[in-house]
Amino acid sequence: MKNFTNYTVYDKKEKYHDETKVVRGALGHDPTTGAISFPIFQTSTYRHIGIKENTNFNYSRIINPTREELERTMAILDGGYSAFAVSSGMAAVSLVLTILKNKEHILISDDVYGGTVRACENTLKEMGVLYTQVDFTDIELVKKEIKANTRMMLIEVPTNPMMKVADIREVTNLAHQYGITVVVDNTFLTSYYQKPLMLGADIVIYSATKYIAGHNDVSAGIVVVKTEEQAEYLKNKIAILGAPLSPMDSWLTLRGLKTLAVRLDKHSLNAIKIADFLKVHPKVKHVYYIGFKDHPNYEVTKKQTKGFGGMISFELDSMKTVNKFLEKINLILFAESLGGVESLITHPASRTHTEISKENREKLGIKDTLLRLSVGIEDCSDLINDIKQALE
Ligand SMILES: Cc1ncc(COP(=O)(O)O)c(C=O)c1O
């Protein structure tokens, strides 16, 4: 029987489709007992065999079989060298930012998740690293913002909440001419729909709290890297920072991951119908949805993604309508976060993007009348009826 010291991922993994890979994982089951549900190795430490003999496992902050199964599965899905599971999406963001050194510079998407801006504004500035926000859908603008000390670009594709879609290959081609590392936050589409490493990016990060785990019941983050050198660097950093994902949360994330493909396809189906409904509603001024043929980056989206996902932002006609809508919406829950089976709606200006000044928010289109909807997998007509009554 195989054991954890000599196991390999299932045979010829490349021949399988993503729908199989998410269900079957790396090992897919416990090699020591045959248990089909991968066990939760709820231990902080491991018994040594002898002074120079070990089981490859020494201490759970460094290595844990449940976490390792999740990490290997994510590396397989993204086509990376290896992956790291950490305690939240922000831990994943912070971890990659440790690559930057004093006096270096980073470019980030202009309407990136507010927490990422906060990390740049607080921790990075204190470390002597400056940042610039730029619209990555305009490559000429990006070119202008590159400085001699720019070391990293961190982009969200699509962005949050304005749904702008940068051309990942174009951005990485430009960045690599200057030796700049490209990190893609792939939280919204996941590797089931979009594979940034295959498009040239160097590192992919996830708030696995969202679609990867998918049930609004766990906080988790993933970093997937392309090279052994990056892997060694991050492995040491995680051990020092002490932010790996716990065994229980690794298991919850693995369990959620098994249904990623069916969930995301259903999120997408529902979102298309809801976006179409919102587009023609008289109280809706604008709908931002990457699946629309008239979305400014539709051609890029078609080129690099397999599906459109479940995220929609939309602008209502007045604050009065917004307030009434959020009071009346019932089945769809007014809550932060996204990517779970339950539909959630949030108000970016007062919730997720507060660190951006009102003036800058307005410039980016994050108006006070903008709402961001994470479409769940409930019956679509129930969701549309809920929106309809809340807009009456
Ligand atoms: C795109 C994106 N990246 C990162 C994060 C941070 O993730 P977490 O909340 O799991 O720390 C979020 C959270 O909303 C997000 O939307």
Task: Describe the structure concisely.
The protein has 14 helices and 12 strands. With 392 residues, it is α/β, with parallel strands linked by helices.
List keywords for this structure.
392 residues; alpha/beta; Aspartate Aminotransferase, domain 1; 2 domains; seven-stranded mixed β-sheet; 14 helices; binds pyridoxal-5'-phosphate
* Percent range of helical residues: 25-40%
Strand content: 5-15%
Radius of gyration: 21 Å
Hetero groups: pyridoxal-5'-phosphate
Q: What is the strand arrangement across the widest sheet?
A: 1-7-6-5-4-2-3
Largest sheet: 7 strands, mixed
Under the CATH scheme, the architecture of the largest domain is: 3-Layer(aba) Sandwich
Query: Could you give the distance between the termini?
Result: 64 Å
User: In total, how many domains does the architecture comprise?
Assistant: 2
The helix-strand sequence is HHEHEHEHEHEHEEHHHEHEHEEHEH
CATH superfamily of the largest domain: Type I PLP-dependent aspartate aminotransferase-like (Major domain)
CATH fold topology of the largest domain:
Aspartate Aminotransferase, domain 2
Describe the 3D structure.
- With 392 residues, the protein is α/β, with parallel strands linked by helices.
- Helices cover 37% and strands 15% of the residues.
- The protein folds into two domains: 16-257, Aspartate Aminotransferase, domain 2 (3-Layer(aba) Sandwich), CATH 3.40.640.10; 260-391, Alpha-Beta Complex (Aspartate Aminotransferase, domain 1), CATH 3.90.1150.
- Strand 4 (150-156), helix 6 and strand 5 form a beta-alpha-beta unit.
- Helix 3 (89-97) packs parallel to helix 4.
- The chain starts with 17 loop residues before the first helix and ends with a helix.
- The model has no long low-confidence stretch (mean pLDDT 94).
- Bound molecules: pyridoxal-5'-phosphate (PLP).
- Pyridoxal-5'-phosphate (PLP) binds next to helix 3.
- Pyridoxal-5'-phosphate binds next to helix 3.
